[in-house]
Specification:
Blueprint (H helix, E strand, L loop, with lengths): L1 E6 L2 H6 L3 E5 L6 H11 L8 E2 L2 E2 L4 E4 L2 E2 L15 E5 L7
Parallel strand pairs: 1-7
Antiparallel strand pairs: 1-2, 3-4, 5-6, 5-7
């Protein structure tokens, strides 16, 4: 199945661009996709999944909805979905 991946801030740098279209196995979950991203992009290794769960303070949206409000890493992915991955954000005064 084809999936549109959108990356922001440091994850965009690691992926080499804001948007990547990629093929994944049918019946993949968010966790499957994130593990594959960690294996593919050096700058994401160990930054998406920590101790078997979504890394702290990152946001992953499936078609605009936070996956933590769905089924977390077990959220199913379907052909044509869009997955957006945001690193932790800090700053401000």
């Amino acid at each position: 199945m084809e999936l549109e991946l959108r990356f922001f801030a440091t994850f965009r740098e690691a992926a080499g661009g804001k948007t990547v279209n990629a093929e994944f196995a049918d019946e993949s979950t968010v966790g499957d996709i994130l593990r594959e991203l960690e294996a593919t992009y050096e700058g994401m290794e160990g930054r998406l999944i920590v101790d078997g769960d979504l890394a702290p303070q990152i946001n992953v949206l499936k078609n605009g909805r936070e996956v933590l409000h769905l089924d977390g890493l077990d959220t199913p992915i379907e052909d044509g979905d869009r997955l957006s991955v945001f690193p932790p954000v800090a700053g401000g005064t």
